[in-house]
Amino acid sequence: MPTIMVKIFEGRSDELKREYAKALTEVSTQVLGCDAGAVDVIFEDVKKSDWATGGVMWSERD
């Protein structure tokens, strides 16, 4: 507890993901009162061609 699923566009660096996972873990321990070792963060990289917002593919917005 908890498991946090993060879906982001592909191409983000490992360092950026590491920093974000650390920040999510810190906030989770503060708000939920759990140990850092209990927080799982799972990143899923998504292609812009597989994501649409408002009916428009992100790959078409570039």
Structural features, described:
The protein is an alpha+beta fold and 62 residues long. It has one domain: Macrophage Migration Inhibitory Factor (2-Layer Sandwich). It has one helix at 14-32, and strands at residues 3-9, 40-46, 52-53, 56-57. The strands form two sheets. It has a two-stranded parallel sheet. Strands 3-4 form a two-stranded antiparallel sheet. It is elongated. The termini are far apart. It is an enzyme of class 5 (isomerase). Its EC number is 5.3.2.6. Keywords: Isomerase. Catalyzes the ketonization of 2-hydroxymuconate stereoselectively to yield 2-oxo-3-hexenedioate.
- Helical segment count: 1
What pattern of helices and strands is seen along the backbone?
EHEEE
Radius of gyration: 14 Å
Structural class: alpha+beta
Q: CATH homologous superfamily - what is it?
A: Macrophage Migration Inhibitory Factor
In total, how many domains does the architecture comprise?
Answer: 1
**CATH uppermost class:** Alpha Beta
> What's the helical proportion of residues?
25-40%
* Overall shape: elongated
